[in-house]
Structures are given as structure tokens and as C-alpha cells.
Amino acid sequence: MFDAFRTPDNVLVVGGSSDIGLEIAKALAKRGSSNFLLAGRNIDQMASCANDISSSSKSRCQVAVVHYDASHENSHGHLLAAAKDELKTLDYAIFAVGLLGDQLNDEKDPAKTKEILDINFTTQAMAILEVANYMKEQGFGHIVVISSVAGVRVRRSNFIYGAAKAGLDGFSMALGDALAGSGVGVTVVRPGFVKTKMTAHLSAAPLSTNAEAVAKATLKATDAEKSSVYVPFAIGIVAGIYRHLPRKIARRVPF
Ligand SMILES: NC(=O)c1ccc[n+]([C@@H]2O[C@H](COP(=O)([O-])OP(=O)(O)OC[C@H]3O[C@@H](n4cnc5c(N)ncnc54)[C@H](OP(=O)(O)O)[C@@H]3O)[C@@H](O)[C@H]2O)c1
User: How many helices (H) and strands (E) does the chain have?
Assistant: First the structure.
């Protein structure tokens, strides 16, 4: 359930070791969310995230972890079963799984291409739908999907990841439309370059931001029940212009 300030009691973080997911969870713990379930592959890392979330909480909060590998068969079904077991109600779910890949190598390797598409799109879409259907039955809930500006206009430099994010973004926005009036909301978050372990090997791009800023913008957007948000705000303006550039010009833009 949500309190009068739209703070959820029970929170699911899919991609439980994600830096961005962790910061959103910490911000929710600080506001008073009391139960968390972190779903991911890396149990040690999630145990450390669980400590960070507990330490952020003003009162006592419970943080459980469950193994979730998006590449496993029926991972979406196991995820929902674990969430039903661990959380009394499923109030707020954050989807922060992501796999950046290495475009120039991956585009020569069909298996790797499939993995990037599957992890960033297909498996996430299935898990989101599973959670959305459950929340709809429940009559309330909010879903946060971490998309990316990479999906607003897919670029040559990362078109496998970008195309998967474009798919996830469109899927999630339309799911939000489908859920209108059901009590369940969807917020699609589109960060630019965020300094996290996913990008640790890359030099920071212009308008880069950090996971704390993404968390702050996410909570502001979900409080206002917005369907989407760019982080930082300015990257939305850049993406909006870039999206409409004629292809011949867009091809010459060096990113
Ligand atoms: N950092 C950026 O610049 C940026 C920009 C825009 C959007 N995003 C998106 O933000 C989200 C969070 O990314 P982040 O920056 O916080 O990076 P991160 O810390 O590397 O988080 C990515 C998460 O995805 C999980 N993951 C990858 N493959 C998985 C699989 N097969 N099964 C289950 N979990 C899997 C990782 O788990 P493991 O720890 O087990 O690998 C990790 O928890 C992602 O969706 C990413 O695409 C990031």
C-alpha cells in the first residue's frame, strides 16, 4: 500500500544489484518503505545492497534477496512467485536489469546479439507484464522501468542495446496506457550517461549524471504519477532534437 505521500510499503527491485536500482531503493527506505525484495544474480552484491538499504532507513526495514537470472527459463514466473511470497502486497516494482554489451564485437556474434536483445527487452517485457497483471488484480501498484535515451533514436554506436531499449520503452509506455484507470501506474525513466558499474569502463559523455540524481528524479516522477522522465532534464531536449534530425545529418553526429 501507499501512504498519503505516495510512499510504498513493499518494493521489488529487479536487477537487485543495480547501482541505479539501489539508489532508488535507498531513497524509498529513507522515506519509510518497510519491505524490499532484491531479485538478481549476484547474491553477495545484493547482500551488500541490502545493508545499504537498511542503513538508509530511519525506522526498521526488511530486505530479502532472491536469485533471479533473466536468461533462465520462466524467470518471470519465478520472480512473481518470490515477490508474492516475500511481500504482503506488491506496491512498487523497479525494473533495472540492463546489459550494455560491446556493439562492435556483438554485431558479429548472433548469440551475443540475441543475449543483449533478450536481457534488455524480451525477458524484461515478460517480467513487467507478469507484475503488471498481478498489480492489476490487486487494484494498485506502480512500475518503474529504467529505459535509456539510447532508445529514443537508436544510434549506430550501440544499435543492439539501443534497439532493445527502444522496444522496452515503447512496450512500457503502451502498457501504461493499457493500465490507465486500473490503479496501476507505469513510469519510464530515460537516463543519459550515468556513472555506474555499467559504464565504469567508459569516459563520461556530456550531460552525464549519477545514480542518486536518477533516484531523485524517479521518485519525483512517480510521486506525480508521470508516465516518463528524462534524467537529466536537458538530455530530453537533446534527445528530442536528435530524434528529428534528417538521417543524413544524424549519421554525421559523433556519438
Ligand atoms: N549507467 C548508464 O549510463 C545507464 C544509462 C541509461 C540507462 N541505464 C539502465 O539503467 C539500468 C540499471 O543500470 P545501472 O547503470 O545501475 O548498471 P548496473 O549496476 O550494471 O546494473 C545492471 C543490472 O542488470 C543486472 N543484470 C544483467 N544481466 C542480468 C541477467 N541475465 N539476469 C538478472 N540481472 C541481470 C545486473 O546484475 P549483475 O550484477 O548480476 O550483473 C545489474 O544488477 C539498466 O536497465 C541500464 O540499461 C543505465
Answer: 10, 9
